[in-house]
Amino acid sequence: MAPAHNFDKTVPALILKLGHYVIHHGAVGIARSLGRVGVPVYAIVEDRCTPLAVSRYVTGAFCRSSDSKAPEALLSDLRNIAERLGRRSVLVPTDDVAAVFIAENQPELEHTFILPRLPAGLPRQLCNKLELHKLCRKLGIPTPATIVPRSLDDVLAFIETAVFPVVLKAAEAYRLPNGAPSVTIAGTPQELIAAYRLAESPHCANLILQEYIPRDAEDWIFHAYRNPGTDCLVAFTGRKLRSWPPFAGPTTLGVCKHNDKLMKQSEDLLRPLEYAGIMDLDYRLDKRDGQYKLLDFNPRIGANFRMFEDASGLDVVQAMHLDLTGRSVKQVPATDGRAFLVESYDFFASVGYIRQGALTPKRWWRSLRGTTEMAWFTADDPAPFFVMWFRLLFRTLGSSFRRRWHRLERQGAAAPP
Length: 417
What we know:
Elements: E1 13-16, H1 25-35, E2 41-45, E3 60-63, H2 71-85, E4 89-93, H3 96-104, H4 106-109, E5 113-114, H5 122-127, H6 129-139, E6 146-147, H7 152-159, E7 166-170, E8 183-186, H8 189-199, E9 207-211, E10 218-227, E11 232-243, E12 251-256, H9 260-270, E13 277-286, E14 291-298, H10 316-324, E15 339-341, H11 343-355, H12 361-368, E16 371-374, H13 383-414
Parallel strand pairs: 1-2, 1-4, 2-3, 4-5, 15-16
Antiparallel strand pairs: 6-9, 7-8, 7-9, 10-11, 10-13, 11-12, 12-15, 13-14
């Protein structure tokens, strides 16, 4: 029989998200995971009608009155929330900006929140793709070949000897201009130049060029909670089967699958680091050389963390709460074959894979039959599912209206007097 976990239900959790993304299934997953075991869950939200705010497992939601990301404003907001909670709570970041903010403001936050202790600058280093590449080279961890263009002239010089397609990435996605994608697979020199111009920052070099690993590669995930201070490690591996956009975006369908080689490689990466907390690592198995190449190290919980739990129902956010509240954490073997589907995006992803010849309608239908958990719909907490679709439809219609309006404006400006 799977062991029961002794959660401290007097210690609440606060979900901290600093990016502006109303539709986020990972945050809803955190509320459900902790709420179902009796832990009070609070959340910082954009407004009262977000999917997260309407979850039955959210004890209370706080709307931030300011969009400022200045540390002083954020610390003031968190102090006010802590006073309203009246007790220390476990702080759970859902984006890189929040994870960096927490690490760099530990002395101010640890009086009112329970945090894993780690070097203040480490999360910023890990979520920066250029710094991560340098770290991997130093530690001998496989990673795609990478160069850093400082200007468009560097890109033009690179094109002269490049083998296409190539990958253009932002070292730090939050520093991109509005509308610029964080990852672009450029199939031609013209596409690369256009993507670079769209994403180029006038203030500093924030873009990197990486080799393209062929499409027959396998995408793998390492998801874990680690605390060197308590010798705690709860870790999982799994396959990313589909993503949106296809081959270059977040997971829309994934499955938990134990991988000894990837587990050992990830532990080799972590051993010299003092990282503590939840992490989400993305790898690609390059079949040309058989190496698992690290693409991303997200120093926070991944949106698809519910893909992973062990036979006792333990996932990484539960492991963190148990560990930080002084409870023992005992991981039992993971539930291999546990499939996780993000139903809001997997349909669009599947259409993209079918158009590119990487999926057939029959294989798509068969892939859905093994789904263990969906990101949004669940019978015991249906409200986030319906609010998500309403917000998604509203956003889509709004974008369509704005495009039509701008087109009419351009046509009017071009018309003769």
